[in-house]
């Protein structure tokens, strides 16, 4: 596709990195506007985003190594740090980023489920930009197809493949707009985040059928299995959080029940 976006002298700007950077900057700007409702400043948002990105990269790399190619990296440990050739998994990034952010939240004594709802709003937006970066980079494509949806990738054999990165980008953008619409309609802190986890897992489950990933016990891919576990955990948390965090701040209320 368009792996190199721009070359200026000895400086090369890659499309994937440019999309990630654009997504991060947009999230920092938009989240800074929204986060004022829960008492966070723009500096707080920058801290959260930086910690989430670092934790996400580490988590996505560890997940990929353990789930997909453990023996190779066991024999070639120096390749663990070579992420320029890919090898990042979103579910791992979600876990790693969440753990890193949770650590920061407890250190700063912020309200965890209000911030989780921010994540449920802006993680899908970041995911959208990341998947557009994948498309421009020509990675994360799906299985071969002769349907009208198929796209030839110049770095491959000329055959058409499902552009699953675009399917994922549409999923991410749809989840972002849903969370944006639902934000003022939440019934408790954490609700938007749980909906995000559930809807993303369902969407990813079906997208996986168009990708060629190894299956666990010849049944489900690792992402599908992880998605099922995520849905079960989210549904289990729903009634608990509904009782604990009900009656969050409305426009005409001054007090927020602690989350």
TrEMBL record:
EC class (word): transferase
Membrane topology: Multi-pass membrane protein
Record's GO cellular component terms: plasma membrane
Keyword Transport recorded: no
Cell compartment(s), UniProt: Cell membrane
InterPro entries associated with the record: Lgt
Keyword terms: Cell membrane, Lipoprotein, Membrane, Transferase, Transmembrane, Transmembrane helix
EC number assigned by the record: 2.5.1.145
Ligand binding (a 1,2-diacyl-sn-glycero-3-phospho-(1'-sn-glycerol)): 131
Gene Ontology terms, MF aspect: phosphatidylglycerol-prolipoprotein diacylglyceryl transferase activity
Spans through the membrane: 13-32, 44-66, 86-107, 119-144, 164-181, 193-210, 216-241
Main function: Catalyzes the transfer of the diacylglyceryl group from phosphatidylglycerol to the sulfhydryl group of the N-terminal cysteine of a prolipoprotein, the first step in the formation of mature lipoproteins.
Family membership: Belongs to the Lgt family.
Xref: NCBIfam families: lgt
Name recorded for this polypeptide: Phosphatidylglycerol--prolipoprotein diacylglyceryl transferase
Originating species: Anaerobranca gottschalkii DSM 13577
Lineage, opening ranks: Bacteria, Bacillati, Bacillota, Clostridia, Eubacteriales
Chain's gene name: lgt
